[in-house]
Amino acid sequence: MAPPTATIGSPGPPAHTCPIKPPPPAASAARCRRHHARALATRDPHLARRLGIGRPDLGLDYDDGGLVELGGAPAATIARICGLTRTEADRIVTTRATSRDLDELLVAADVPVSQWGMVRDRALLHPQNPPPPDDRPL
Predict the structure, then answer these.
(1) pTM score, two decimals?
(2) Is 71 helix (H, G, I), strand (E, B) or coil?
(3) Cα–Cα nearest to 124, from 84, 73, 90
C-alpha cells in the first residue's frame, strides 16, 4: 500500500505530492517520555526533583525524554534543549523568579513567538512552593 500523500499547491490537480512520513520511532518515544515525566512532575514535584526531571545538567539517570526545568536549569542547558540563543536563555534565567507560569515567563523574557512551540514542547516549570511530599508507599 502506498504511503499517504499531501498536496502542495492550489486546489485542483496536484501540483506536487510528497509522502507524509511518520516521525522516527525515537522521536515518538521521546515525546511519550516527556509526557509521562511531565505528569509525574505535576503529581509529585518532590519526586521529580529527586529524579532530576528537567535537569540534564545534573547528570542523573532518569530519562525524561529531553525536558528542561526553566525554574532551575542553567542558561546554557535551556538554550541547548529549547533551541534558543544564549541571550534568550539568559533572559529566562533573569526573569524566571517573577513568573507564575510558562506563558508569563515567555512574555517577560521576550522570547520570540516563533520559538514558543519548541519551548512548550521541552520546558517544565516546577511550582515555586510545592506542597509537602507524599510519603505514602507507592
Answers:
(1) 0.74
(2) coil
(3) 73
